[in-house]
Amino acid sequence: MKQKAMSLYDYNDYREFLKDFLRDKTKNQRGSIGKLATSLNVNSAMVSQIIHEKSHLSPEQALRLTKHYGFSNLETEYFMALVSMNRAGDKETKKYYQEKVLSLAKLGETLKEQLNYQNSRKPFDEGVYYSQWYYSAAWLLTAITPQTKQSLCGLLNISAEALEPALLFLTEAGLIKHELGKYIYSGSHVHVGKDSKHLRQHHINWRLKAVQALQSDDINQNFHFTGAIVLSKEDVIKISSKILDFLKEFREITGPSANEELLCLNLDWFKVTKHD
After folding, report:
1. 170 phi and psi, to 5 degrees?
2. What is the β-pairing status of strands 182-185 and 176-179?
3. DSSP run (H or E) holding 182
4. Which of 93, 190, 201, 258 could serve as a FRET partner for 37 with CA atoms 20 to 30 Å apart?
5. Over the stretch 24-37, which tens digit does the pLDDT of each residue have?
6. What is the pTM of this model?
7. Which CATH number fits domain 8-120: 1.10.260, 3.40.50, 2.60.60, 1.20.58?
8. Which helix (H) or strand (E) holds 99?
9. Cα–Cα distance, 102 to 82 (Å, whole number)
10. Tens digit of each residue's pLDDT (9 = 90 or more) over 84-120
11. Do 101 and 12 contact (CB within 8 A), yes or no?
């Protein structure tokens, strides 16, 4: 029986991961020790010493490695935490990074399960699904309770003519079922990856919806914050780290939460100017 391939999140030692990763030519298309050494600006003997646990990657080398292999943001964060944990010189520091590694591994496996579930679902045209905000909104509302076309029109404040194609699409895609005049959530998952060509439209759709919420009469019942600021590069990194920590906690809370209310969180943190 073929052994199940291990993901990065299965490893507690980054050197064991590198050893297996470099051995697996199907996963590692850029995959020689020599090419990695060139990217890290070291010689091949140094890479071999790291793999055989006679030396460690520096934080700078670890970051170069994640860029060399094209790791995702979450994979990069996990790998960097793994390196810090393995390099830790005292129990307190090691424990800190162990907890961070466990938290990131849990998040990584959750996202992988969602993607695997999505890949097993009936394929559909993502371009259509992400064309309008109310495709995903209508689908999510059925997770709270079965909905009629009329109830969805009222909740979303859109016409039946606009909603009809969305409901037909969601039904054919297997995301909802239509039984006895009601639309029922199917329990599927939809995830837009960072490399998806539809990600930009997905962001735009829900930010336009946020603008509509700002223009509504009940603005004080929602939470909106805008803060254009100038600060040091060091504090930019601190705030970015806190935002990432919040998003991890956000996923941990929302994952098992009961389906009772539909809300949208838009978070933007970006450089306004082009210079460094």
Report:
1. -60, -35
2. antiparallel
3. strand 182-185
4. 93
5. 643 444 457 888 88
6. 0.55
7. 1.10.260
8. helix 91-120
9. 10
10. 999 999 999 999 999 888 888 877 766 555 445 444 4
11. yes
Domain boundaries, the chain: 8-120
- Are 213 and 225 a contacting pair, CB within 8 Å? no
Which structure tokens are listed for 128? 């259509």
178-216 tens-digit pLDDT: 988 899 998 667 777 777 888 899 999 999 999 888 887
Of the candidates 206, 192, 209, the one whose C-alpha atom is nearest the C-alpha of residue 127 is 192
Q: Name the token pair of 106.
A: 């849990």
Phi then psi for residue 4, to 5 deg, are: -65, 130
**Local confidence band at 248 (pLDDT 50, 70, 90 cut-offs):** confident
For residue 58, which of 40, 32, 36, 44 has the smallest C-alpha distance? 40
Contact between 81 and 87 under an 8 Å Cβ cutoff? The reply is no
The mean pLDDT value for 2-17 works out to 74
Cα 17 vs. chain centroid, distance in angstroms? 22
Indicate whether 219 pLDDT > 70. no
Helices (H), 126-268: 126-129, 133-144, 149-156, 160-172, 199-215, 233-254
